[in-house]
Design brief:
The radius of gyration is 18 Å and the shape is elongated. The two termini are about 15 Å apart. The chain is mainly alpha-helical. The chain has one domain. It contains four helices and no strands. Helix 1 packs antiparallel against helix 2.
Amino acid sequence: MSLDYSYALTPLLAWLLAGCSKFAINSVRARRLAFDLIGYGGMPSNHSAIVCSMAVLIALKEGIAHPAFGVAVTLAFIVLLDASSLRRQVGLHAEAINTLSAATPSKPLRERMGHSRSELLAGFLIGSLAAWLVWCWMPMYSAAG
């Protein structure tokens, strides 16, 4: 039995694809290389790309009836809810605090924290693409392929 590296490769590929996409989108919007905009928030969501890539890979390789798929979907929902609600609220609080403390010369808090639904959807699509690419590239390990 050989080792199946697809479960390690898939989230790494999803992170790389989402991160490069986010950097490119931020750079186009800012009309410069936007290294300072790397981080939380923005299009697409790295978090959703990573967790959704694993759920989709498990669905492709093991099927949706497999218990690991249920665990992966549960984790994905928790991460997506956190990114769209809690972290978004943290960003709104940071914006309010920065407005209140505009007179003081301190470093402002990062306001881009959470994600919109379109950013989460883009992350889901990138994660799904990453899972599909790995599944196609490593068919010898798939149950269906």
